[in-house]
Design goal:
CATH class: Mainly Beta
Distance between the termini: 41 Å
CATH topology: Porin
Helix content: under 10%
Number of domains: 1
Strand order of the largest sheet: 1-4-5-8-9-11-12-15
Shape: elongated
CATH architecture: Beta Barrel
């Protein structure tokens, strides 16, 4: 009963905090920093010189983003984070692991910048760096991924908590291709990674 009472009190206090502290909404010139937990889920497809399918594992990472509001409605966001993925082939087995650094810049439109609940959509460009490629050994002693430019679509929402703090939910789809060379080019693949990036976090506005 004590736990239930505590949870009930907490649930009631959150909206009260938001109402008591007040919020001013988003405005031109604001700088917004968010920290998110991000689920990175590739939606991969591939063609290889030996046939078969390529599979790329998911990852969960911390991510930071930085947004600048050029107007009340229009902002530019840059995300920073890096993920690491296991890669395998349906016939060849493990292709080792690879790390991705995918800085992405989007232009966003915020529909209700002065409201406590403020949804937005965005679109932009991505450039992915592939690094720390670890070949599994055995018959595969080297693997190389080509850095590539792609584009991104985005949708999300901020919920003002009061003061300068907010909660955030954000979903991005990055359309990303890469060329893979195995054992110095003995095997080649064209891979569409096309990951979904699903994030939940908090923001602070300056």
């Amino acid at each position: 009963m004590a736990v239930a009472a505590l949870l009930g009190t907490t649930a009631l206090s959150v909206p009260a905090f938001a109402d008591d502290a007040g919020f001013k909404g988003k405005s031109a010139g604001d700088f917004l920093v968010r920290l998110r937990g991000l689920w990175v889920a590739p939606d991969e497809s591939a063609s290889t010189t030996i046939g078969g399918d390529v599979s790329v594992g998911n990852d969960f990472i911390p991510e930071a983003d930085f947004s600048y509001f050029a107007t009340d409605n229009i902002a530019f966001e840059l995300i920073a984070g890096t993920s690491r993925h296991k890669v395998s082939h349906s016939a060849a087995g493990s292709l080792g692991k690879v790390s991705l650094l995918p800085p992405t810049l989007t232009a966003q439109y915020h529909f209700m910048p002065k409201s406590q609940f403020s949804p937005y959509v965005g679109a932009g460009l991505n450039y992915t760096f592939f690094y720390n490629e670890d070949a599994p050994g055995g018959g595969i002693n080297s693997i190389d991924y080509q850095n590539h430019i792609g584009y991104a679509l985005q949708a999300g929402a901020d919920y003002e908590l009061g003061g300068n703090w907010s909660l955030n939910v954000d979903v991005k789809k990055i359309f990303l291709k890469t060329k893979v060379s195995i054992n110095g080019g003995a095997v080649r693949a064209d891979v569409d990674l096309d990951p979904w990036l699903v994030g939940v976090g908090v923001g602070y506005r300056f």
